[in-house]
Amino acid sequence: MRMRHVLLFSVLLCLVMGVTKVCLAEEIQFTHHPLVIVGVAIYGVESSYNPCPEDGDGGKAVGPFQIWMCVVEDVNERWGTNYTSEDRRDLLKSSEIFVRYCMRWEPKEDMEAWARLWNGGPQWREKKEKTDEYWKKVQIELNKEQ
After folding, report:
1. What is the residue range of 28's domain?
2. At what angle do helices 34-47 and 2-16 cross, to 10 degrees?
């Protein structure tokens, strides 16, 4: 099951980065991309790999990645996309939102920064200690992969 999630993220990363023709070697390379690896772990933390989880945070966090509407609005503004509130419930579209959000706010390859960003928003560094517990959960999920 994990490999399916890794392949999904790999394809998404290719699409978001504008790669249209991907040879097998490049596709395999994307499966080891840090954003793919941490994205799958975050999916596990947020919804235990359930593509249809219950809403969290009083109904504000929705879908497999528990996305708040402000994240959708941010991604649409930056990337010129038209994601909707309901797109948060779709595994493919919510994965795209996750990748685009991380690429906007943390363009350097840094799994810890991506995880803390996802939990604390773009200003996470100002409240780093508030994202410590979440980062620990992501690390546990990452260690399951090894």
Report:
1. 2-145
2. 120
